[in-house]
Amino acid sequence: MWRICPNCGHRTDSYACEKDGGETRFIRTDTEFPGRLHQGDLLLEHYEVHDLIGVGGMGAVYRGQQRMTHQQVAIKVLWRDLAADPVEVRRFSREARAASLLSHPNSVRVFDFGADDRTGTLFIVMEFLVGQKLSDVLRSTPVLPPGRVVHIVTQVAKALEEAHRKGVVHRDLKPDNIFLQEIAGEKDFAKVLDFGLAKFIAGDFERDQLTRVGYVVGSPEYMAPEQASGGNVGPAADLYSLGVVLYECLTGNLPFDSNSTAEVLRMHILQGPPPLVAPSGEDLPPALVEVVLRCLAKDPSDRPASADALRIQLLQACDRRGLSVPRAPGPTREDRGAANRPRPPVGPSDAPPFAPADSGWGTLDDRLDPLPDADRAAPLLTPAARTRAVGRALAHSPWGLLILGVGIGMTIAAFWIAWR
Question: What is the pLDDT of residue 390?
């Protein structure tokens, strides 16, 4: 937990300030420190600060309100000492720019960003979320049911699909950056948070990078091998991190863990993950295990072709085992055509395990977004088309041919009797 020096505002996990030797304090809602905002403070004359709700490495987060609309918002403020560092200011700005590019319901929304003219405070205004982080859920319940895990991760994959399509790689995906809400009675509606380490890989932002090749950023426990080695990081790195999240939620353990950060990075680069075993000893669905291991492949080209491909593979893995995956609230009809959209070519290891036509599963679209009962009851074929379909089905079955022959014979007999 963060501690702060009340004299200089330096943040540390030590009981003594490394800068002036003063005693540090835990940061609580009533802790005073340089640059702290207080209830009633105004930013840009629009946003009224209420209370401190959290702290992080880059800044403090306050609950606030938009004065004109009375909308509750979260206000993230950059630490005052970091505001003097051009690199940290650019990183803070990048988080705002990355999040502002995204509009998917499973990504946190950014409403405003700027610097207060009066105090010089840099801030980001975001939607105010009520719920808890996935990391908090895992602290109380280390192992989650496979159906619930897939429900959460497929939503995260939707958010990543939009981000990657717009040229944004998160680079710090972990349970602490996945927020779970209850919306309209539906639990575990996921939001992806904190694009502070995001990398722009397309557009005008591509040149605005704050890290160099060979420089490692992110959380070691969730880093892709290419990220851990300081190499070039693309969308596949986010899928690897999501694979680590899957592994942790299903087993209660990280695939690679050590007291040494360097050792954790070495494991990600060189060592294969341990077998996925639930603490209860119960076997995990083999199809789901296969998808997780595919995400954790060392070679980025061996991972799923895209976040959307991963989402579909996870849903199919649940279908194979008959696992129930809750549906997230909000419009999902767009998913019905997801499997039919053009996709990048995939290798054999990336090919999703589609069901054979006679498996009885129904169509892929039905499994991704089941039709309402009213839609199912609606006639899908005209009477003439239905007659032709029945005729074709009978013609391809031995019993059908027998029934068809008997029917024709009875029709001829009826005509003969009537003629006589």
Answer: 55
Instruction: Kindly report, residue by residue over 266-296, the tens digit of the pLDDT.
Output: 999 999 999 998 887 778 899 999 999 999 9
Q: What is the pLDDT of residues 334-355, one digit of tens each?
A: 444 443 444 444 333 333 333 3
Q: One of 172, 188, 238, 350 is an active-site residue; which one?
A: 172
Instruction: Provide the whole-model pTM.
Output: 0.70
Bridging pattern class, strands 59-66 and 72-78: antiparallel
Q: Show the domains of the chain with their CATH numbers.
A: 21-127 (3.30.200.20), 132-370 (1.10.510.10)
Residue 172 annotated among the catalytic residues of the structure: yes
pLDDT by residue (tens digit) across 256-270?
999 999 999 999 999
